[in-house]
Write a structure and sequence with these properties.
Number of strands: 2
Protein name: MarR family transcriptional regulator
Number of helices: 6
Organism: Streptomyces hoynatensis
Order of helices and strands: HHHHEEHH
GO biological process, one term: response to stress
InterPro entries: HTH_MarR-typ, MarR/SlyA-like, WH-like_DNA-bd_sf, WH_DNA-bd_sf
Helix content: 55-70%
CATH class of one domain: Mainly Alpha
Largest sheet: 2 strands, antiparallel
CATH topology of one domain: Arc Repressor Mutant, subunit A
GO molecular function, one term: DNA-binding transcription factor activity
Radius of gyration: 18 Å
Strand order of the largest sheet: 1-2
Length: about 140
């Protein structure tokens, strides 16, 4: 065994664990969003719409291209869950704002997502610690 073997094994195992956690969170979201008549992508958009934001901000939070977010936002807008409004300081941009119906549905979704979450076994302190570690790992270099 080389000196690198333990580090490589740890890296491989961490990648596997992060991948599995991501899969579980995705499955959890898909199932909970489906209960509300939403696709996983629509559920992700509602989860990430914590306040008025631009399409670029939303797509960044969702981890997708703005064109993909546009398609999802179009569907949510057609359902009456959000509106595009003029941006208060950038006349070229629009802000995405939840309608009262959208805000109510987001609340229901968030309540469902908290229940039996793949992260539910971790204490609040452990979740904060995991957040800090993952944030450090994904920060741009």
């Amino acid at each position: 065994m080389t000196m690198q073997e333990p580090a490589l094994t740890t890296t491989r195992e961490l990648c596997g664990l992060v991948g599995e956690l991501s899969r579980q969170i995705g499955d959890h979201l898909r199932e909970r969003a489906g209960r509300l008549g939403l696709t996983a992508a629509q559920g992700t958009a509602l989860r990430e719409l914590t306040g008025p934001m631009t399409m670029r901000e939303l797509s960044g939070r969702m981890g997708c291209e703005p064109s993909n977010a546009t398609f999802i936002v179009d569907k949510l807008e057609a359902l009456g869950l959000l509106e595009r409004r003029p941006h208060p300081s950038d006349r070229r941009a629009k802000q995405l704002v939840l309608t009262p119906e959208g805000a109510a549905l987001r609340e229901k979704l968030m309540a469902l997502l908290v229940r039996d979450s793949p992260l539910a076994e971790l204490s609040t302190q452990e979740q904060a610690q995991l957040h800090d570690l993952l944030s450090r790992a994904v920060l741009p270099r």
